[in-house]
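Pipeline run #58 for the internal structure catalog. This entry was flagged by the ingest filter as a single-chain record with no existing model, so it goes straight to prediction. Upstream metadata was stripped on purpose; only the residue string is passed forward. Reviewer on rotation: M.T. Logging verbosity set to normal.
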Amino acid sequence: MSPLPTRHRRLLSSPPPLPGRLRGFTLIELMVTIALAGVLMSVAAPSMTKMMGGNRVQTEASSFVNDLQFARSEAIREGLPVTVCPSNDGASCLGANTWQKGWIVFSDPNGNAVVDAAEATAGPLRKRPALKTGDTFAGAPTPPNNAVTFNREGFTSSLGTSVVTFKLHTPDNVAKSTRCVAVGIGGRITTQLTGEGSCT
């Protein structure tokens, strides 16, 4: 095989052409980008906080509803009253309308909404710890709703009115993040947003 002409050998061994001058961000461009990112974050952060608060409150309200439904079904199944009450120790009732401190579900044969000696020995059927987020959870209207007791028919026997609304809201009391749990005398339990039903 004959060697390539000198002209072709020189072309093959030539280095590739250099690319155009590589260019990065200037200091001004970088500062403008950071400023725009800061503006976007300042707009998005409050919305994200509110969304997270709403999701958290919804989860807490769902836990309360689940425990109320459980208490009602247990009362019907056992043929004995079952009570749900605020509790900060997971064993006894607080006797106060401060549900954010946690609550318990317990079998309450005498229906007095108090954990008596025999009931304390049996222990609660369920218990929930205090809300860790500073959320507030209380029942309205008056009288103070220190407990919800379901009788053997599944009706509430301790509310003193046809419907009691338990309001759960974030520390900043944002309406969109508020959830209410309405409990009717017939045992009906519903979750509501602000402006729905008795949730104000």
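catalog note: Residues 14 and 51 are 62 Å apart (CA to CA).
catalog note: The mean pLDDT is 84.
status: ready for reviewer M.T.
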